[in-house]
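Supplementary Text 2. Reproducibility record for the structural model of the 404-residue chain.

All settings were left at their defaults, and a single model was retained for analysis rather than an ensemble. We include the record here because the model underlies the residue-level annotations in Supplementary Table 4.
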Amino acid sequence: MIIVQSQEQGGEQRTILMTMKGVKLDKKDFFGKSDPFLEFHRELLDGSYALAHRTEVIKNTLNPSWKPFRINARRLANNNPDASIKIECYDWNSSGTHDMIGICYTSLAELEQTRSGKTWALVHPKKKEKRGYKHSGEIVLDHIEIKREYTFVEYIQGGCELNFVVGIDFTGSNGDPRDPSSLHYIGNNRPNQYMEALSAVGNVIQDYDADQLYPAFGFGASLPPTWQVSHQFSLNGNPNYPDCQGVQGILAAYQQCIHSVRLYGPTNASPIISSVARMARESLQTSGAGKYFILLMLTDGILTDMSETINTIIEASSLPMSVIIVGVGDADFSDMECLDADGQLLRLGRKVAKRDIVQFVPFRDFKTVSPARLASSVLEEVPGQVSGYFNSRELRPLYPPPPH
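Retained model, structure tokens:
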């Protein structure tokens, strides 16, 4: 199945779902059959072509079925329904010099208008003049379906709220808050790194949340009066109502909390992620595409419950939520980079995440730039995660835009 994502200038997106296969392709390998793959090329203004997408290689077959893939129509055909799309079929060679099997042409308009069973003959340009030559095999369209997709802006304008939740690391590795070298030290009328990161990200997200009430938690501290260690406690001291009013409310609760608890450990992230996952699961049952949760976790180092955290993130990947992790200080953040599975899906044994929901950035990379740069970096994946999630569940905005 091939997914061709088309975005119009007016913001409307359509997804073309297409299943294709090759039939009776030319045999290219002396000791085998062929190892075919497809290349899709878009037509440029000067009539030349540029590579837009390449499929995977299917080994040793003349009748391949390629896996689904997604490609933006702007990349495939510059959103021009009549622009030519060149499809080249090659036999893969380990040397990097691949043998051409044949070429065919189509367009977005043809893909949208065609029916299942459509066949394109692959013609080799050096063979087409030979007497008796017909083609070098065919590619066949088994199924095509066009769906409307919505953008991040359309979901927000259609009533979706971004629900901001904060989790702050209160483990002993941060250092005594009374010591100027501590990551939690507050003095000289200057915010610490936790406060700077929270302000930078929160001040952007709050524009997308109508009530601006944000649940804010700490983890890894021992709490009065029993001094028992907690891996999730309300910053405002109210376990039944952890919401703070706006970013300033979170900062005020944090500054009060840091002087009333004892920094301890270990650094367990999974309890707070699980808590936000419960919120997201409940909202999905009641509000559809009305809420999306963003958990901002601020931590200074290595997680103690890495396996549990990975498992929790994998389970949360099927819910309307994202996890942003900002690493504070100069510790080793290789574990966090592992959680940010860019280019691949997070795995634990046989369990695989449905999608990538984690974004990690180390605060030290942004200490000398404006807060806007940090916010931009940590939030850059969120719009695609929001629209991608709701579209994959076929959930329309609460108030859909009128058709174009």
